[in-house]
Amino acid sequence: MSIQIDVKTNGFELNDRLYEYVRTKAEKLEKFVNGLEEARIELTHAKFARATSDRFVAQITLSGKKMLLRSEERADDIYVAFDAALNKIQRRIERFKGKRYRGRGDGVSVGDAAMEIIQEEIAQDLAAEEEPVIARRKKFTLYPMDEDEAVEQSKLLGHEDFFIFFNMATNSVNVLYTRRDGSYGLIDTELA
Hints:
Layout: E1 4-10, H1 16-27, E2 36-45, E3 56-64, E4 67-75, H2 78-98, H3 110-113, E5 144-145, H4 147-157, E6 162-167, E7 172-178, E8 184-188
Parallel strand pairs: 1-2, 5-6
Antiparallel strand pairs: 2-3, 3-4, 6-7, 7-8
């Protein structure tokens, strides 16, 4: 079974040499993990990046049965950025494969319960007199998990800032976030 590879660029033209380079390396990811269905690769050139080492951004998102993994890297060359993102996604695959699956008591593994997770981008603050702009919208399915599983899933997906999940202990939607001191905070929601 061959995976579907989707390569998109933003800010520059995708030439044949770069496309073949990316496609060849992305096809090799299939041998690292079972159930891989799609690899989305987004290559971006930011002309006005603050540092020249941040001009090219490579983002890889892998999806498949019971998994969603993502990596992003920046560099001054698109090939270097893509190779760094590829190395990072391979480390995440190894961590995903090595994760201990604990039963939840209902016969469903943690991996099954946490198949799709959100990574939401928030628009930059605009001028005070302007209305806020919603730059991106995403839909996702919440799966029940406990707080420890939510921490593990946020690390697997690279969601270091925040992570939204359904807490099976409190039967409510929770937001897990990283505090400045490196510890985690938890927001437990309730309807008024």
